[in-house]
Design a protein that fits this description.
Shape: globular
CATH architecture: Up-down Bundle
Order of helices and strands: EEHHHHHHHHHHHH
Strand content: under 5%
Number of strands: 2
CATH class: Mainly Alpha
Largest sheet: 2 strands, antiparallel
Helix content: over 70%
Radius of gyration: 21 Å
Number of domains: 1
């Protein structure tokens, strides 16, 4: 039968040892190591109940403050829309992993998995925007009021939809290598941008142990973002290229769900980080007015 899972390997062939294997669900095939699948599904439902309202609140705040938004908010807005779409999938995913043996409904899930796979592209745009603002402020200022960010966002959406459609088909040879290359390139780029930003902010103070309060807050925020990028996106980067070193069943039932469970949970962590930043800015504004 074919076992459909949430990754760049959305379907992999399992050779049944008997005729009844074709009737098994994904959960039945992994029944001797079910802990990670249960953990993964629990994480997905937490993602749904936490991620949807958090991302909706992000959209509301960006709309409410559209007269006073940062240059990165256009990418944050599109990332929130993408995450909301992905956070709608856990009920269907639960049904397909635990109850259903048909492969038809996996076409829908593969499309949404393709959307989530491409989310690092929007994160890379956010990192690039912040990188230009800190490392190349003159160039950033000259481009600040132009429409290149909207063009870039449209380009990312077209790339995302094309990738998701190709993934939905599910029979492209070596298609998993596209995801591996994309996540590795995006991860490397995001880490480079954030480390460079941290270094520039750290060196921009009057002395090595001094830093302007605004830059200090920016330094702490970028450090948190870097930690989240490593936590959410390092597992697939570290594990997927070494698939052949694991037994097929261990990779399909264990390694895969660990890597992508952490990556998928970014749909909740990212909006929560944005909301915490907005709350911090609001508190600082109120404090300044009181003084």
């Amino acid at each position: 039968m074919e076992l459909f899972i949430n990754s760049s390997l959305l379907y992999v062939s399992l050779r049944p040892l008997n005729s009844t294997a074709a009737e098994k669900t994904v959960y039945d095939i992994c029944k001797d190591m079910p802990a990670v699948i249960i953990w993964y599904l629990g994480l997905q439902f937490i993602n749904m109940f936490l991620g949807i309202p958090a991302n909706l609140m992000v959209l509301w705040l960006i709309h409410k403050n559209k007269g006073d938004t940062s240059t990165s908010d256009i990418f944050i807005l599109h990332l929130a829309i993408l995450d909301i779409l992905f956070c709608l999938t856990p009920p269907l995913e639960l049904a397909n992993i635990v109850f259903l043996t048909t492969s038809n409904t996996w076409y829908v899930l593969r499309f949404f998995y393709g959307l989530k796979d491409s989310s690092p592209l929007f994160l890379s745009c956010i990192c690039l925007d912040r990188y230009m603002a800190v490392v190349h402020p003159v160039t950033f200022t000259s481009l600040k009021d132009r429409h290149h960010r909207a063009v870039l966002a449209i380009t990312v959406w077209l790339t995302t939809l094309a990738y998701a459609a190709a993934k939905c088909v599910g029979n492209i040879v070596n298609f998993e290598k596209v995801f591996t290359a994309m996540i590795l390139a995006a991860f490397t780029f995001m880490v480079f941008c954030n480390i460079t930003i941290l270094w520039v902010l750290r060196q921009s103070g009057p002395g090595r142990d001094e830093m302007h309060p605004v830059k200090k807050r920016a330094f702490k925020m970028v450090l948190i973002i870097l930690a989240i990028i490593v936590f959410n996106y390092f597992p697939p980067v570290a594990l997927l290229p070494f698939q052949e070193y694991f037994s097929p069943k261990v990779f399909r039932c264990y390694i895969h769900y660990v890597a992508f469970g952490l990556m998928d949970f970014s749909s909740s962590i990212q909006p929560m980080l944005y909301l915490s930043k907005e709350k911090l800015n609001c508190c600082q504004c109120c404090s300044t007015q009181i003084q």
